Amino acid sequence: MLLHRYCPRFLEMSYERERLIAELAVQRATILTKRVFHEKVKGEVAKDDKSPVTKGDFGAQALIIQSLVKNFPEDQIVAEEESSSLRQDESLTVEIWELVKNIELEDQPSDQLLGGPLPSQEAMLDIIDQGKSLGGPRGRHWALDPIDGTKGFLRGGQYAVCLALIEDGEVKVGAIGCPNLPVDDLASLTADIGVQQTGAGQGVLISAVKGFGATTRPLSNAGLSPGKPIAMRLVTDISQGIFCEGVEAGHSNQGDNAAVAERLGITSPSIRLDSQAKYCSIARGAGDIYLRLPVGKDYEEKIWDHAAGDLIVQEAGGQVTDIYGKPLDFTIGRTLASNKGVVAASKPIHDQVIAAVQAVLKL
Ligand SMILES: Nc1ncnc2c1ncn2[C@@H]1O[C@H](COP(=O)(O)OS(=O)(=O)O)[C@@H](OP(=O)(O)O)[C@H]1O
Ligand SMILES: [Mg+2]
Ligand SMILES: [Mg+2]
Ligand SMILES: [Mg+2]
């Protein structure tokens, strides 16, 4: 079936509006996260599970949910953060509100597309709490990670603002802002991008629509910069492949990752970076394989940690599965309860990587 790009059915299938709003909403939120990133005190609070959350996470979540509610009032939102700790901390709430109320895109038409500013501090707390949807197999759910890699954000390393639209369990749109990644696709192959990248340049906004490819563009504080398509590298000799993995040893098993690399004959050191910047890096050829091998058997990966990155890698020519070779299943709820770990690589080498993972993990 040939569809003209201005026909309503094409627009519906290509999720043009959802993509535009997602890109702009993420871009606007990165203005806030960049401000907090450069502040000495980032308003760090420990959550019940001991993981950190900051002014940046709360503020970005408020701004993005506001954009979604204004544009897609019928849609559900599955977001990482909620406001209960803030409601007991008036001074932190005031600090976040002071940030949030002053954030806008410098391009007015773009800012207006997002539906204008938040009305008040009290409304901000309520908006943060509109991300409590349980997800599931039916309907439209936005998965939002306002700051992915909060530990990287606090350490001065990589982090990402991540948003994805999941419709009937399938990821349709993904947008990831990586303020500390270099604009040049391949620069991160040669630079130590994992940590201390405060001078790393402008950052990138990477996005994808199911069936329509993946795109990168420099992040901007105004409207969207021109984008260009990205694709994974063609790796003919897997021993020349480049590994990406997490920085935190508690999030993925670096020993097992190294054993897989060795089994594949890979000798170059892995590139370590926090957040879904790993998915973005392999999608644009700054790496070939992303492994997230489980540390313990009980942890369930969260959908907001993977939805946008999964789509971006697939649209750039990659394959994303768990350690059993099973696609990530976004139909279950807020977690990927039926998957274990993540193995992402370009399609031609994915089978080989899975075989090595299974040999190392004795599956
Ligand atoms: N035990 C365990 N296993 C796996 N994953 C976990 C675990 N604990 C936390 N998390 C989630 O890891 C998210 C950050 O992932 P990263 O890829 O940035 O981790 S790493 O630091 O690069 O290793 C992080 O996302 P953010 O909280 O948004 O930073 C968590 O959702
Ligand atoms: Mg977190
Ligand atoms: Mg996360
Ligand atoms: Mg987060």
From TrEMBL:
The keyword Hydrolase applies. NCBIfam families: bisphos_HAL2. This is 3'(2'),5'-bisphosphate nucleotidase. Transmembrane segments: none annotated. It comes from Elaphomyces granulatus. The keyword Metal-binding applies. Belongs to the inositol monophosphatase superfamily. Keywords: Hydrolase, Magnesium, Metal-binding. It catalyses: 3'-phosphoadenylyl sulfate + H2O = adenosine 5'-phosphosulfate + phosphate; adenosine 3',5'-bisphosphate + H2O = AMP + phosphate; adenosine 2',5'-bisphosphate + H2O = AMP + phosphate. Converts adenosine 3'-phosphate 5'-phosphosulfate (PAPS) to adenosine 5'-phosphosulfate (APS) and 3'(2')-phosphoadenosine 5'-phosphate (PAP) to AMP. GO terms for biological process: hyperosmotic salinity response; inositol phosphate metabolic process; methionine biosynthetic process; phosphatidylinositol phosphate biosynthetic process; sulfate assimilation; tRNA decay. Its cofactor is Mg(2+).
